[in-house]
Amino acid sequence: MKASLSVEAIGHDTIEYLRWGSNLLDDCGLPGKSIVGNPVELAGWGIWDVREDRKVKRMIYGRTDYSNANSKGSRGVRIWYTLESGHLYFVRSPTSWRNVDEFYCRVNDEGDIERE
């Protein structure tokens, strides 16, 4: 069974500017990733597929929804993820600019997401 979960990408515009700046530095022959950092690691949100010992296997990529975003894209941008049953996931979901809700979850056989 599959389930979908959305996470608000607070500060999405900043991450996009960092990605743009990093690519610009790379094009100029400077090591952009080492100067700016990896934008994926700087983001305060995301979902990762983890093993039973809670070590990360891979990052899950989602679909970005701008339908409720403000004009800059700093709030209201949502990332929708499709989760499958039989996997353990680590979720980082911002609740505000300073607070992030972090938890582990699974999808049960009925398609409901259960927090651990």
Describe the protein:
- With 116 residues, the chain is of the alpha+beta class.
- It has one domain.
- 22% of the residues lie in helices and 39% in strands.
- It contains three helices and eight strands; from the N terminus they run βαααβββββββ.
- It has a five-stranded antiparallel β-sheet with strand order 3-2-6-7-8, with no helix packed on it.
- The radius of gyration is 16 Å and the shape is globular.
- The model has no long low-confidence stretch (mean pLDDT 81).
Helices and strands, with pairings:
Layout: E1 2-8, H1 12-27, H2 32-36, H3 39-42, E2 46-50, E3 56-60, E4 63-65, E5 78-84, E6 88-94, E7 100-107, E8 113-115
Antiparallel strand pairs: 1-5, 2-3, 2-6, 4-5, 6-7, 7-8
Mean pLDDT metric: 81
Overall number of domains: 1
Question: How many beta-strand runs?
Answer: 8
- Report the span from N to C terminus: 18 Å
Overall 3D geometry? globular
Beta-strand level of the residues, as a percent range?
35-45%
Give a quick precis of the structure.
The protein has 116 residues and is α+β, with helices and mostly antiparallel strands. It has helices spanning 12-27, 32-36, 39-42; strands spanning 2-8, 46-50, 56-60, 63-65, 78-84, 88-94, 100-107, 113-115.
